[in-house]
Write a structure and sequence with these properties.
Elements: H1 2-6, E1 15-17, H2 20-32, E2 43-45, H3 52-58, E3 72-75, H4 93-103, H5 105-114, E4 117-122, H6 131-135, E5 139-146, H7 150-166, H8 174-187, E6 201-203, E7 207-209, E8 215-220, E9 223-228, E10 243-247, H9 251-260, E11 264-265, H10 269-275, H11 277-293, H12 304-313, H13 315-321, H14 323-337, H15 347-350, E12 355-356, H16 363-372, H17 378-384, H18 386-394, H19 398-410, H20 416-424
Parallel strand pairs: 9-10
Antiparallel strand pairs: 1-2, 3-4, 4-5, 5-6, 7-8, 8-9, 11-12
Helix pairs in contact: 7-8, 11-14, 16-17, 17-18
Length: 428
Amino acid sequence: MDLLRDNELIYGRLLAIEEPHLIERYNKALKAFGLKPTERERIEIDRTGFSPQVAEDLGDINYLDPNQINRRFIILTPQQADLPVVHTAFSNTSQLLYEFLTANARVINALTIKDVIYGEIEDSVAKVEDIEDLLSINQVEFRVLSAEDVTGKATELATLVDRLKQEPEAWRDTTMLEHMVDLAKVTGDIRQNALVPDQVIFRHNAYWTSHFGGLYVFVDPGMTTVISDPAAPGFRRSRPWQVSYLSLHDTERIFDFLVSTGRIELPRASWIDESNYLEHRAEMIVRTLIHQSDPKRELSSVDRVWLQSWIHGHADLINREGTFPFLNAAKRELAQLGQMKIADVRPERRFLVIRAKPDHPDAWLTSRLISDFVPFDFVSRYVFNKQGFYRDYEGFDEVWRRHVVETLKDTYLKDKAGFRARLYGLHD
């Protein structure tokens, strides 16, 4: 993974924490979780407070996610709202934390001046043993704590202020007044600085989770759809009137589900032509075939003329594999008709020529699902399914790793927003 790290393809865009008082605060949160404090003078953190350096020292990548449910978080600064989430068991952890940070921005700004905020994203289950446990999670609640208990003290002070206003004799309680002064020394003027989060409960909607080898949950009015390996415990076991179960291996039913729920764009010249979507897929498969046939060849320096010559010289291999000829045929059909007769396409090939509907709320999740069916497109895999990409990368040889890194640097990393907008129609 060193090559990925050196090129900011893993643990990129993290926030460096090196101020001694912030390291001290982070350690207070670790101790509160029962974890060994870090001895490092500099760490990097993501939106949740996860640090690759601390994970390495603890020997536990899941130190903030011990049961891969009820995710822990450590907030040192409001800046974390703009960071990525680099390690999580649920794809929507990033969005949930972003909503929490933005909904309570004023409180978090005030609290992090004085203290570290930590806690858990709690839901209705403590451990996931089958699919039904996942489906029982309808909402999550942020349980918010702080090392100096500033939030608790602010709540206590607000209660005492109310008592002072409502009980005429409360002014005579000198012990209470002295306690209020002590609390105010910690919290400051709570009339000016709100120190208790306003919103801590959020909806838990569509997501991917790493449980049971990878599982998708899509939510529509009146029906929840689970897409997973049929071997997952609880698959098709209950509530058929509320839950539809699709095998991750059943490409036809998954495709039909995505079409019927309006989550994908079918191949039409209107978006295919301007995006170069099919050209991108074609180049990905050709480069994959070149490496498979000649693993030692360095591909970083080859140009389009060389690629075209290779295609002509290996027509039998290309035709036998079939993806490249299919994409060329799709281009011809789109040029002639403006659209494709998708019903005539074999189910497993349909995912080559579709993309998530950009304006659908589940566009990123749908794109992740599509990437599962087009694993050779490591660029799309990296954009939407980093866990899958990193797992694939572990199996790559050194030559292919170098090529993958160079390709990502020359395409996606140069202009992430522009690349996503052009190829997938997604606008930040």
